[in-house]
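Input/output pair, single chain:
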Amino acid sequence: MIRLPGCNHNPETTVLAHYRLSGYVGIGQKSDDFAMGSWSCSACHLIVDGAKTEMSRDIVRLAHAEGCLRTMAEVRQMKARGELD
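Output:
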């Protein structure tokens, strides 16, 4: 859902990438899974976590925020189709 350059599009590597927003995260505290989490392939997750730094941090943060919105929209659609409880 993050869609950064280098995304491997592999659903088998999908994990939840937590968006770090000041005031909502800290030592030992992750952000809310639904409101601030994005489904992410392993390649995008490495970039979001800062392991790869060849892209502007602002671009990465924007792509991650958009990924959170896409994930929320998809979860709502899945619930409406009865695929999730």
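Residues 57-80 form the longest helix (24 residues). The chain has two helices and two strands.
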